[in-house]
Every structure is written in structure tokens, then in C-alpha cells.
Design goal:
The chain has 112 residues and is of the alpha/beta class. Helices cover 41% and strands 15% of the residues. It contains five helices and three strands, in the order βαβαβααα. Helix 1 links the parallel strand 1 and strand 2.
Amino acid sequence: MISEVPLGAFLSGGVDSSIVVALMAQESAAPVKTFSIGFEEQDFSELKYAKRVAEHVGADYNEFLVRPDAIEVLPMLVEHYGEPYADSRLADLLRFERNPSARYGRPKRRRR
């Protein structure tokens, strides 16, 4: 893997992202930066699976918790897509992408 900027991967803990991260780890001399998005409600969060994969491959694991308040990013979603979009995860990914500290692997502190 060759890049002018640091590489990383979204890691959900599912089969696809787990395979991508495992292959990246095989090819990388440094730990792969992984980013996982989850929820405070354990019934809906898959962070435990993502963390297990990251630990198994020796990745630099970063997790981010989101709250179900997608209404605040709705105007940005409409602006970017201009049509209905059925994947509710997009709001969380957009929040993650807009968080400057997230891009450099420093998770935003959890709100209480």
C-alpha cells in the first residue's frame, strides 16, 4: 500500500470490513488505523465485534459513539444527495467525516 497521506479503514466488525482491515494489516509495517461508529445502546452497537477484529490484527482502533439525532445533519444530507436516501448510517458517517479530530485518529470525547 502506497499513499502520500496516512491510510485507515472504517471497521464495522462485519465480514467485508474485517477482511479489508486484515489484508491491510498484512501489507502494512505500521498498525492500520481503524475507525468504528457505534451507539450507546448495546443492543444496536456492533463495536465489540470491530474491537475484537482490531485487536486480532493489531490495528490502531478508534471508536466513535453517536446519538440518534440525525435531524441536525438533515440539511447537509439533502444538499449532497438532493433526493431521498434510505440508509440511516449516512448521517453518522457524515458527522464522523465532518469531525476534524476524527480524521487524525483522535476520537471525540463522549458527551454525557
